């Protein structure tokens, strides 16, 4: 019974403990964020802008330090601009004299 359960201590990177390779990599997330940012300028900017920011931020590794992939950085910047423009447009549409009376 002395050796029971010690396999994980000797080999911490056993096949059951490693990360699966089925997730999206940073390049794919950067491209998805870039597509969302560009599409957000034409339709659904209030939804696609924050989606571009999140995808770009995840593609950058959730950090500003170190080398940043260009599509991810562009996705974050364009997503922020897109979100800001959508909020300004919504604030302008909700202004006074909206045709209610």
Feature tags:
101 residues; mainly alpha; 4 helices; 57% helix; elongated
Could you describe the 3D structure shown?
The chain is mainly α. It is built from four helices and no strands. The chain starts with 6 loop residues before the first helix and ends in an 8-residue tail after the last helix.
Summarize, please.
The chain is an all-alpha fold. The chain has helices at 7-10, 26-40, 45-59, 70-93.
The number of helices is 4
Q: Which class best fits the helix and strand makeup?
A: mainly alpha
What percentage of amino acids are in beta strands? under 5%
What's the helix-strand series?
Answer: HHHH
Count of beta strands: 0
- Enumerate the spans where pLDDT stays under 50 for 5 or more consecutive residues: none
Instruction: Describe the oligomeric state of these chains in a short phrase.
Output: single chain
């Amino acid at each position: 019974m002395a050796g029971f359960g010690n396999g994980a201590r000797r080999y911490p990177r056993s096949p059951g403990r490693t990360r699966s390779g089925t997730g999206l990599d940073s390049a794919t997330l950067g491209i998805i964020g870039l597509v969302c940012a560009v599409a957000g300028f034409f339709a659904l900017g209030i939804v696609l802008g924050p989606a571009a920011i999140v995808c770009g931020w995840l593609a950058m590794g959730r950090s500003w330090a170190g080398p940043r992939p260009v599509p991810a950085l562009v996705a974050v910047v364009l997503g922020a601009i897109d979100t800001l423009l959508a909020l300004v447009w919504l604030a302008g549409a909700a202004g006074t004299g909206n045709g209610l009376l």
